[in-house]
Structure formats: C-alpha cells, structure tokens
Amino acid sequence: MLLLLSAILGCLASSSIASEGRILTERDLRRYLFADYDKLVRPVTDPSNAIVVYASITPIAIKSLDENDQVLVMDSWMKMKWNDEYLKWDPKEFNNITVLRIPHTEIWKPDLSIYTSTDDSLFPTSNTLALLYSDGSVLWVPFFQIKSRCPRQKKQEMSYFDCNLRIGSWTYSSDLLNPQLDSTEVDLSNFQDTNIKWKLMSAKTNRVSKYYPCCVEEYPLINFNITLKRRFI
C-alpha cells in the first residue's frame, strides 16, 4: 500500500512539474531571447550582410478618393517577412515550442514606408502581434490605412484614376536592407468592393531600383499600382 501511494504521489508530482514546466518554458524562452536583445540594432551577426525583407500590400477596401486634393484612402494589410539572427532557438530545448506571438514593439522592424503618403500615414502603426519562428523568421502583417497622393495623369480619362504607391526603406540603402516582392501578384481575395463611387479594376506590383543625387547606394522601391473606375449611378 505504501509503495502504491508513493507511486501515485510521484505521478501527480511529475504531472504538476510537467504542467508548470510548459508554462515556465515559454517564459524562459522569452528571457533567453530578449535578455540581451537590442531592438534598435539591425539583427545580423555580420554587419556587412543585408536584411532581405519580403513585402506586399493586400487591399481590403477603398475608403475614399478626393479628386480635388488627389488623395486616396485605402484600408489594407501590409505584409512583411524577414529573418532576425538574434531571435533563434532550438525547439527541443524549450518543450518543442516553434513559434511565439509577440508585440511588434519588442523587436527590430524594417522601416518600410509609403513614400507617396500624406503626413499622417507614413508607417504602419497597428498594434498587431508579430509571429516569431524558431529559425529566426519574423512575420508581421499590420492593418494599415494608407493615405496616398495620387496625381491624375493629364491624358487620363475622367472615368478612370490610377494611383501608384511607392514603398521603400526610409533610411537604409539596399546593402543594409533589401526589400523584395513577397509575390508578383496582388492578393485581392480579401478585397471588399463596397465603395459607391469607385470600383477597383486592377492591382499590380513590381520592384525597381532607385538612385538619388546625394548617394551612390541603391534605394530599391516596391511599386503598387491600382486602377479605379468611376461608377455611374
């Protein structure tokens, strides 16, 4: 009887430790990752290496198009993927945890911005979580209400409106941060065609090289072009 009681108590203790260990493992993993982490520093072990950022915009809805001020307001998701060499771990050492969901404010993020944006919507500011994987991969998909200047082309028909958004790093050249297309096709599967004045006719994206008189380095841009057609009611 004494042996049976000891066995039962031992099983209960092991179960309690395993349960507590699972909780502590996530806490310990965060402590392990962020003990000496600096989110202001590019996360590369070799400073000469560029961080490749795969980016895309997923349109959700056209909110408005001010023809007088020539400003487009569009709800969207801005998808960004990159690798953080300082945030890696072996899942076997942390109870097989392969992914963490963390506030984006705790990690380094690429300073991709909308160059054609108005003053109050230059960078995405949504408080969405980022996914951090054990191999250092980071996925962040913030909601972004884009407000972009869209000058009308002189020869363009009045029933159509083209808007070209330009996305790029605000401070890094391509040798430090290299933006790439996440996909050559624009994902329209989540688009809601609810604007009563304008209908989205097409959306295209491409990557271009850009050089400025001030600098010899390349500053790549991702172009996102949409064509709207006026609805006649």
UniProtKB/TrEMBL annotation:
GO cellular component terms listed in the entry, alphabetical order: postsynaptic membrane
Domain of life of the organism encoding this protein: Eukaryota
Pfam (any one): Neur_chan_LBD
Residues in Neurotransmitter-gated ion-channel ligand-binding domain copies: 27-231
Topology with respect to the bilayer: Multi-pass membrane protein
Protein's cellular compartments: Synaptic cell membrane
Stretches assigned to coiled coil: none
Protein name, per record: Acetylcholine receptor subunit alpha-like 2
Species annotation: Nephila pilipes
Lineage: Eukaryota, Metazoa, Ecdysozoa, Arthropoda, Chelicerata
Name of the coding gene: nAChRalpha2
